[in-house]
Amino acid sequence: MVWSRLGTSSRFLLIGSFVLWNVVEGWSFTFAWMRLRARWHLGFPALAWLLGGYFRIWFHLFVLAARGSLGGSYVWEGMLGFLFFFSFRSVWAFILLSCSLFVCFFTRSSLANSVGLCWTSDGSGSFDIQEAEGVAVGTKIVLHLKPDSREYSDEDRIREVIKKYSNFVGSSIFLNGRKANNIEPVWLLDPKDVKREQHNDFYRFVGNTFDTPRFILHYKTDVPLSIRALLYFPEGKPGLFDLSRDGDIGVALYTRKILIQSKTDNLLPKWLRFVKGVVDSEDIPLNLSRELLQNSALIRKLRNVLTNRVLRFLQERAQKEPEEFAKFYQDYGLFLKEGIVTSEEHKDKEEIARLLRFDSSKCTEKDQKISLPEYVSRKGEQQRDIYYLAAPNRTLAESSPYYEGLKKRQVEVLFCYEPYDELVLMQLGMFMGCNVVSVEKEMRLDKAATEPTDLGEGSLLRTQVDELISWIREKLAGKVANVKITTRLDAHPCVVTVEEMAAARHFIRTQSHQLSEENRFALLQPQLEINPRHDIIKKLHKLRESNPDLAQLLIEQLFANAMVGAGLSEDPRLLLVKMNDLLAKALEKH
């Protein structure tokens, strides 16, 4: 016996099991609700009203009955097969109405002296009811299929439909003598009672995969919505189609164990498309259409609740299982970064950003990573910004001219090795009240270093510096917007800065090929900062008078090198020609 709550107020008593047969040779499909007990006897008028109305307004009748609009709580005998369609949802109505030449309903009450009835219709709007002999107690429905719908007389096809839409109905479903719905609705069980093996089997079922879950989020809540959720985070690495934003969300939406949609795009944000599982909410109406799924305020509220719970769960895993989370982040960190770029609310960006992990100038162990909250907790009291540097690897980051100044001040810098990391941090903008700033931008804004009163020991004289700057501006006209000196450099002769380095690099990678070199420099407005204490700069000052041609090649090469170091060169291979010219000129006298 199973009590199934349908609608908002009425209860239907369901006793027994669904029994299905399919016969290929006869081009028919048969299913029945057997062994039913009854309080109500359906005679000719009731059967005519019920089934005739069903074919015209089948769903409307069900909603009215479920809400008690047909006179309160009914226990329908015999025609409990009618409810069978709703337990299997509209897919069975599709088979019934679209794929059948005609359909026969056989029903008989368990009351004494009841007779069997046969209701027949071809779907044209008319039907016929006759007494029938040899009808067992309960309901049997025989669909005579159209030739082009023969697939529904195939056992494997029907088993596939049952598995997809009706695996978790309250009653057993037997197909040709074998139980077809063998999987238990694990999400409705107490999390403490579910074994790991059950989770593995259910994960493989809902995810259509062969691996095992890395993390399992199994929870229920009644506030602000009634939610029973079972979400899995895969152990395997994401595939090519998982990385595509065109991939489907892997979470199915149920209401009272009845499938609403197997892959619900709006149930979780796109960046969580790697999550697999089931969400069951009694607040979701059975007749929720695809349009309502896309625009429903209820679905948006459910989405917010689930997203926040997933983020909180991952933050808990990061604290309790740091090593396992590190493996997860290595495989799925790209999805988290996508979430920061695509989220509209800054509070959502900050919650996702708590999960990010980066190498740092103060990380001393191999593969050690830190989070943004860790960075904020150990920065100096006077430091108001979070600094980051984009570089292909740690060696290049530590040798970068942009890192020199902050290194001398012992300021921690995050090292970003992926091309999209700086775009992510640029989109984040602020975290826990701190501005997220690239070291290049910090360097450009440091007026104390670019307008020094003391050039330092071993530097060119002020007059020599001014002469050299004027000469460089002349030789690099059309390429640089300005030339300045800087005292922040020690190991490097010069460096290039632009207003928004991260955005500029993204532009170079994606759009610059559409522009000429002249237009590209005009858009970037690069500023060249020279180190007056560096030997190359001091030699350049002498060469501009003793060997102007060589000095011209040298300053062009220094500028090109600085553009490569800044990641603003479209193709570094183009520098080889100028490099060879410079070497040839330097070796003329040898």
TrEMBL record:
NCBIfam families per UniProt: PRK05218.1
Entry's Gene Ontology molecular function annotations: ATP binding; ATP hydrolysis activity; ATP-dependent protein folding chaperone; unfolded protein binding
GO CC annotation terms, alphabetical: intracellular organelle lumen; mitochondrion
InterPro entries: HATPase_C_sf (IPR036890), HSP90_C (IPR037196), Hsp90_fam (IPR001404), Hsp90_N (IPR020575), Ribosomal_Su5_D2-typ_SF (IPR020568)
Protein keywords: ATP-binding, Chaperone, Membrane, Mitochondrion, Nucleotide-binding, Stress response, Transit peptide, Transmembrane, Transmembrane helix
Keyword ATP-binding: yes
Family: Belongs to the heat shock protein 90 family.
Binding site for ATP: T139, R290
Species name: Lutzomyia longipalpis (Sand fly)
Compartments where found: Mitochondrion
Record-given protein name: Putative heat shock protein 75 kDa
TM segment ranges: 12-34, 46-66, 78-103
